[in-house]
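Handoff note, outgoing to incoming analyst
You'll be picking up this chain. Sequence as last confirmed:
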Amino acid sequence: MSAVLDAVGWTSERRAGLASDQPLTATDTRDLLLLADRLQRFAPQIRADTAAAGKQPLDPVEMQVQVISTEQLQSGDGATATPYLRVTANEGDRPLTLLANDVPDAWLAPGVLPQQAEVVGLRIRDGAVVAIAWRWLPEVARYPHVNFGESVLASLGVDVGSLDRFVDGGRLQAVESAPFYATLAAMRQIGPHQLVRFARGNLPTFAAQWTDDPAAPPRERALAREVMTIAEEGRYPIAPLFNDALNQRGELYLLEGVARRAVAIETAAGAGARSVSAEHGVDRYYEIELFTDDSRNLPVVFCALELPPGFPLGDKIEVPVRAAGFSLKRWGYHTRRQSPDGGDKPQLAPLLIGRAPIVLSAPADAGAAWGVIVGLSFAAAVAAVWVVVWRVNRSDAAFERAVRERAAVPADQLSRLGELDGLSTDAADRQNEGP
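Most recent structure output, in case you need it:
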């Protein structure tokens, strides 16, 4: 670490000067923040070095702290001014001041702090640290700043602050890779049925966040009324995922619809390459295009860690499913329909991550395996339990009939359904796998 610091201008003499009781100069503050920014991508390695670190200036530290407040400041004036945050915290009963380039967005909103968090940084002097990376696991929802889905992800070990890296409206970027694969990897710890139960249990609280405010703009009022109407029917509405995506980031949704495309995505980890996916142990996941009866023939992209046995892969499937997943962003892609400027028309699709879809009934074209399953299930049925089976399956059968009636895609949109290529999230190239 000393060699790295020397190379970027923090010689042993300059580091020793930080130990004095004198206030930091504007130059030192700026250079410390620049150093922290450069080291952010090496946070895991720095964390590993903290066990052997001493207590000299710029030695690495890892701390569990209670964050009390944040203050937005700047170092220097004019064109050279550097914006930063001064964070007041406690490490146990010891007060602590941290310099930070950024913090989780939610901490800047009133009523969210105090919060427990982990910080990796560099010691400046007693009671002062420059933060390199935060890890925030809020296991209690505080709407509107911490939603229920984020609290579930936190309980699974996902850094909720890292979700701030998702940029709405475009393809996945390199900076989004770590939270994308961290969320996928976390799905190993929870089953699809448990996610369904969690989502159903939170529906009343989710719906309570929406009110028909007469003072709100007409579009917001219309969205709120749609949410409340559909929630009263016991369903999650699709509209907020399209029209209020930023505020839905991290939220847990439960959707029912028809899967019309499912492909396996081989990551760089699957090819044995060093990559973000390898760090999280994800060598493959599945990308599913899901159409609900209120999505107006626009797809939701559901990324699943696994598929149920026998689930078909391909570009032309039709499988009624139930899917519980966490909203991350709207993903941008191009259709084959023409825009006014003559190019391909851009379209946005909500992107969710979950463990696996749940098949509501056997798809008609899924092959012999499904026929065997159905046949065995029929043979096992006996008169003593037929009433129970009928009651359990009645709602799924009704759903399947309704959704098949509404699932016909206009002919001018058929060409675009194969245009959702594999999500570009990893450092190395990978390919889609068909059936």
